[in-house]
């Protein structure tokens, strides 16, 4: 059997807000709350479960995406007013070109960083 990451818990200051912000970045809707979690289904294999019971903590979640998904996430980051940039903890409003593709880091107000990139560096 191969190993597939099925779900992970994302510590958030406000589980509903962070789930909504992330879901908007990837163009889906958050799922219905399940116990203490607000799930966001990333694809057939992965769900991020947003949980605010212990408060928010900075985190980093990286996603290899196609060009259309990259463009959609970047456009949503621009429209939403979220901080974004070419490197972690940078808000230079630029993308990088590591590995011959495009990459960007988008941060929600709780300090959670989402990295979207189109080629593996």
**Helical amount among residues, as a percent range?**
10-25%
What's the CATH C level? Alpha Beta
SSE order: EHEEEHEEE
End-to-end distance, in Å? Answer: 27 Å
- Count of discrete alpha- or pi-helical segments spanning 4 or more residues: 2
Quick one: how many beta strands?
7
What's the architecture, going by CATH? Roll
Contiguous low-pLDDT stretches (5 residues minimum) are: none
In percent, how much strand structure appears in the residues?
25-35%
Radius of gyration: 14 Å
Strand order of the largest sheet: 4-7-6-5
Report mean pLDDT, rounded to a whole number: 95
Characterise the protein shown here.
Residues 4-119 form the VOC domain. InterPro entries: Glyas_Bleomycin-R_OHBP_Dase, VOC_core. This is VOC family protein. With 121 residues, the protein is an alpha/beta fold. It has one domain: 2,3-Dihydroxybiphenyl 1,2-Dioxygenase, domain 1, CATH 3.10.180.10. Helices cover 21% and strands 29% of the residues. It is built from two helices and seven strands; from the N terminus they run βαβββαβββ. The protein has helices at 15-26, 67-80; strands spanning 7-11, 37-41, 47-51, 59-64, 83-85, 103-107, 112-117. The strands form two sheets. The chain has a four-stranded mixed β-sheet, with helices on one face. Strands 1-3-2 form a three-stranded mixed β-sheet, with helices on one face. α1 packs across α2. The longest helix has 14 residues, at 67-80. It starts with 6 loop residues before the first strand and ends with a strand.
